[in-house]
Automatic annotation (TrEMBL):
GO BP terms, alphabetized: carbohydrate metabolic process; glucuronoside catabolic process
Glycoside hydrolase family 2 catalytic domain span: 281-601
NCBIfam families: PRK10150.1
Organism: Oidiodendron maius (strain Zn)
InterPro entries attached to this UniProt entry: Beta-gal/glucu_dom_sf (IPR036156), Galactose-bd-like_sf (IPR008979), GH (IPR017853), Glyco_hydro_2 (IPR006101), Glyco_hydro_2_cat (IPR006103), Glyco_hydro_2_CS (IPR023230), Glyco_hydro_2_N (IPR006104), Ig-like_fold (IPR013783)
EC number: 3.2.1.31
Keywords attached to this entry: Glycosidase, Hydrolase
Domain of life: Eukaryota
Matches recorded under PANTHER family: BETA-GLUCURONIDASE
Phylogenetic classification of the source organism: Eukaryota, Fungi, Dikarya, Ascomycota, Pezizomycotina
Name of the protein in its database record: Beta-glucuronidase
Amino acid sequence: MLKPQATSTRELVSLDGIWSFAVVTTTDVDEERIWTGVIPPKLQAPVPASYNDIFVQESIRGHVGWVYYQRQVFVPHGWSQERYFLRLDAATHQGRVYVDEHFVVEHIGGYTPFEAEITNLVAPGQPFRLTVLVNNELTWHTIPPGRVEVGQNGERKQYYQHDFFNYSGLARSVWLYSVPTVAVDDITVKTDVDGTTGFVDFEIKTSQSIDEDRVQVSLIDEVGSLIYQTVGHKNRAVVKSAHLWEPGAAYLYQLRVEIMAAPGSGIVLDSYQLAVGVRSVKVIGNRFLINDKPFYFTGFGRHEDAPVRGKGHDNAYMIHDFHLMGWTGANSFRCSHYPYAEEVLEYADRHGIVVIDETPAVGLNLGIVGGVFGVKPSPKSSPLTFSPDTINDKTQSAHAQAIRELIARDKNHPCVVMWAVANEPASAEPGVREYMEPLVTLNRQLDPTRPVCFANMIHAPVEKDTITDLFDVLCLNRYYGWYAYNADLDTAEQALEEDLLGWQKKYGNPIIMSEYGADTQVGLHATLDVPWSEEYQSRLLDMYHRVFDRVDSVVGEHVWNFADFQCPTTIFRIDGNKKGIFTRDRRPKSAAQTLRRRWTEQKTYEKKL
C-alpha cells in the first residue's frame, strides 16, 4: 500500500486536528447509531493521539469498547476529475468509517493503515460529516490477543498477555487524498548489490490495465541527475558505481513512476515518487551481512509511548528519540511489538538506521500471564496457549493478515532488514509449530529478500523450543540477573553464557540478544548490587556485554528498553515499566553512559566484524 503523497498529479489534505469525541455507552454500537447525527462537542480529542490519558476520568482511560470521533470535511473544488479516498494510518484496534450516514470501510488491526474511496459519496466542493468508530477490545481472535470479562460490579474489564498499556484511538494521521482516474496503484522494489554495482528490480501496478509504453520509470540520484530510464511495468535497473544505502550513511535514490497519456506525448496523467536505498541483506553462517559486510546490531527495543499522547505519533518526540539513540551510539532498533508509524521508517531510511520490523503478535503465551505480570491467569478450560478455546485457527488467520499488511506497507523501506513474526510465543508448547510454520512460509512468499525471526523467551530454552529451525536469525529475550538470579550477577553471567553457547552449538545461526535489562528507579543509588538502583542496571549491562564478546555467534544487542513506558498498573508495575535507559520524559539514567562508552568509545564488539 503506497503512502499518499502530494505530486504534480495528486493532492493531499491532512485531517489531523481537534475532533468531537464520545464514548459509546452500550456494548452494541449499532444501537446508538451516533454516526447518523452530529456529535455535540462536549468532549473533543486530538488526532493523532491515544485518547486514554487526554482526559482525567478513569471511566474513559479504562474504557473497554467503542468510541466515536467526528469532524466536518470538505472535498476540494478542484477534484471534479479525480478519484478521492479517505485513509487512516491506524485505528487501534478496530475501525469503522462513515461518510454522513454511509458506512464505507471497516478494518481490524491496530497498527496498519486502511482506506476507502468516497468519490461516489460526496461531490467536489461539498462538505460531509466524517465519523470514525474505534474499538479497543482484544479477543482470542485478535493480534495481539486478549479477552474481555464482566466483573461482579457489572463493569467490563480487558485482560491481555502483553506488558504495555492498551492505548487506543486514532494514534496516527487521517488523510483525504486525490488520484487521477488512471493512477499508480502499487510499487514493489527489491535491491541487490554485487561489489560496486547495484540492482533495482521494480514492479508497477496501475489502477487500470494500460500499455507497457505508457508507464515511464526513472531513477534519479540525490543531486537530481537521471541515471536510468525505461518504460514498462517491470524491469531491472543496473546502477554501476552505485551509492549504497549503508548503516549510518544512507543514500536514497528516487524512483519516479509516471503514467503518460500516450507514448511520447509528454503529458503526464499520474506521477508517484518512491525513495530507494540500494543495499543487500543476507545471512551466511553465523553472520548478518548488509552489502556483503558483517553487521553488528547495537540499539534498543522501543515503544511508541510518551506522556499524555500515549501511542500518538509526534514528529518532535520521534526526532528527539533518534538523536538520543544516536548519542548512545545505537545503529538499530526493533519495532517492538507492532509496526511503528511509517514516518519513523522514513526517517530511519533517510539517516541510515537499521530496523527489525515486527507484527503485533505479542502475547501468544499463556505461560507468562499469571506469575510475571500479576494479572488474571489463563482459562481453566484451556491451560494451553494453542487450543480451540484460546489461540486458534481464527487467531492464526488474523496473524496472517497482520503479516500481509505489514509487508505491503513496509516492503520498500531500505532500513527494514528483517521481519519479526512474533514476540515470545509459547514456542515449547504443543501446537506452536502447526500454528507458526504456515505463517513463516507466508512471510517468505511475500518477501523472499529479507531474513525472518521471532523473539524467543526463557520458558522455551534450547532443549525445549520446537520452532527455531524455521527461522534465519535467533532473537533471544533474556533477563538473567533480573527475573532469574536477581542480585546475583556472577551466577547470572554463568547461566547466560551457557544459554548462548547452547543455541550456538545447536543451530549455528546469528544470535541477537533482542531484550535484556533491569527495572531501574531513577535517582536510586547504591554501592552494592541493589536491584532497582542505577548502578545495578549498569553493572547488569556490563555483565551481558562481557558474555556477548565471548560468544562468537552474537551479532547484536538490543537493550530493553529505550525509555520507560506505561503498562497496566499492578504491584509489580508501579506507574509503568522502568527498564528504560531513559525515563519516560527522556532523561538519561546512568546506564545511558554505560552504553555510550561501549557503542561509541570501546567498540569491543568490532572484533566480530
